[in-house]
Amino acid sequence: MWLAMSDISSAMRRGFLDITPIIPAAVPIGLLFGAIAASKGLSPFEVWLMSALVFAGGAQFAAVELWSPPLPIAAILFSTLLINSRHILMGASLGPKLDAFSPPLRNVALFFMIDEIWAMSERRATLERVTPAYWFTMGLILVFMWSVSSAAGAVVGAAIEDPARYGFDFVFTAMFIGLVMGFWKSRHAGAGIVAAALASALVHFVFGPPWHVLAGAAAGLIAAWAAAGRSAAA
Amino acid sequence: MNVDSVNLIVILAMAVITYLTRLGGVFISRRLAGMDARMRAAFEAIPPVVLIAVVAPSMLTEGVAETAASAIAIVAALRLPLIAVILIGTLAVVLLRLAGL
Lengths: 234, 101
Prior knowledge:
The structure holds two protein chains of two kinds. By secondary structure, chain A is mainly α. Chain A is built from twelve helices and no strands. Chain B has one domain. Chain B is 80% helix and 0% strand. In chain B, helix 4 packs antiparallel against helix 5. Chain B is flat, with a radius of gyration of 20 Å. Chains A and B meet through helix 3, helix 4, helix 5, helix 6 and helix 8 of A and helix 1, helix 2, helix 3, helix 4 and helix 5 of B.
């Protein structure tokens, strides 16, 4: 019986272990986000609501940067769309690997597809099936930690110290480097990674966020496509 | 519990837009069934390419400490498990910043 309780509890345990290293990075960033949002006039409840419903750190930081009266609603929503457009590529890649989910359950599950959960699941999909128990364990823990730490940051306000002092800001970078290297399995993947890194850094330097994600992804996909063509012809 | 109605509407609109981007990719992937080898190579490169596009600025444009710590994390990732890469990379950036880089 494949749906044995031991399978479910072992998938939950695996999800818990995979999400744990992300918590020490997510909580200080959540506190910082809440403090910034509160300084822009958002109430702790509004901050909690945004973190619980939007659940996308990059887009939320960009939105509260723009948050001053009169509210530039179009700019806030366009920035949200642009920063989160990477989710479309992420979902296109991960979607077919969620075959252990019924379509309605998968559509609910996709609410939790933030970078870290997506990356952990892509990695797990190379070894084993991604199950609802694994996915929702990670998603519920992270949305709880993110929304509560955001609200706490809004209550405590500007008393938060700079997270860069402790290197918390670099945890995500180090984690993404580790994950990316795990995907470096072919020449065309390598070409895509190098092209994406250079294009993203260049566009970020020249134009600033949020264009670097789209530009880097586009350059990387074109480079992977081109490199695969050459190796196929050789 | 104070909630401004304009704030509430913008927050809800952000949530809907974000959820639609998360949902949208699944429906694209169904149309990509008959891909050739090159298209499949590009498609399989999506995970690392998107991840690196998100963090490349903090690896390459923030300063010497961040770039050096990134290089250390890359070397660590050749041999060590993910949690060790995170610990070594973060420790490296803290020490390099303390050293004034």
